[in-house]
Specification:
Number of strands: 3
Largest sheet: 3 strands, mixed
Order of helices and strands: HHHHHHEHHHHHEEH
Strand order of the largest sheet: 1-3-2
Radius of gyration: 20 Å
Shape: globular
Number of helices: 12
Distance between the termini: 27 Å
Length: about 325
Amino acid sequence: MTIENAAFERYRRSPNEKTNLLRLFFGTAIVIAFWMAATAVVLFAGLCHIVWRLPGPSTGQYMQDFLASPVGILSALSSFAGIWIGLWVAMRLVHGEPLSALFGVTRRIAGGDFLKGLVAVLITSLFSEVLLYWLQPEIARGPITLSSWLLFLAPIALLAFLQTSSEEMLFRGYLLRALARRFGSPLVWAVLPGLLFTSLHWNTASTLAINASVFISIGTFALLLTLLVYVTGNLGAGFGAHLGNNLTGFLLISHQEAYNSFALLNAKPLEGPGWTNLDAVLIAAIGVVSTLLTMLLLLHRRSPLRVGATRQSPL
């Protein structure tokens, strides 16, 4: 498996002279401000939910109940629009570039790579779910009916794309591109955004061992997403891979109690009790193996899902 970086070298040299560390700092602050503003809107909606007490089961933790409800999940996913808006403002006002400059050198998302990334992760996600079922066969049918699931399928897919694409634009686009222009070492432009991205998935409700296993699994997946940018010089494959990962959790098999309202099946939540240290080690191992299989599907020269191998049609 040979990895070439000619496309990435063009991508890292594409920012204009206004892309320096100071402007990157201010631009990032703008993105965070818009993201927090959008999150505040969601929290305000949660307060309205508490005031009017929409019908449904309650645990007494009303804000958590709202965020775990179907309306709450849809609202939370919508808040990621703040990242897109913040990036547009930062690119225009701080860097003097169009937002599309983050997509790749062609300033378009590679449509073929997007589909390949999506299919590859859907395949390996099903493989990992089989292994997780072997580890913990505690799976129950979710509360959502099949008709309701079909009704929400398109909205959830679109909002999941909004969430995952905004994260790719920020961590593998805006931050990676600017840092790669300034620093030659991947320890800066690859590892630093990856650590920031992975740290957002720390769950205070989970044990240290489970958090460590999730940190390893997501950290490995983040490195794969970075590798896809390195190989293709485009965010298309990462868009598809990240979307496939989240769609599996949102719509098929949920491992998080706070995001299981739309899933057909609910597995034992990772933030719940009863997980051992050995379970955490095995969960991390399953995540790493699944990511390595995804890497083979997307980068092996004989794979039909190999990305960046042919001229791509834009989305």
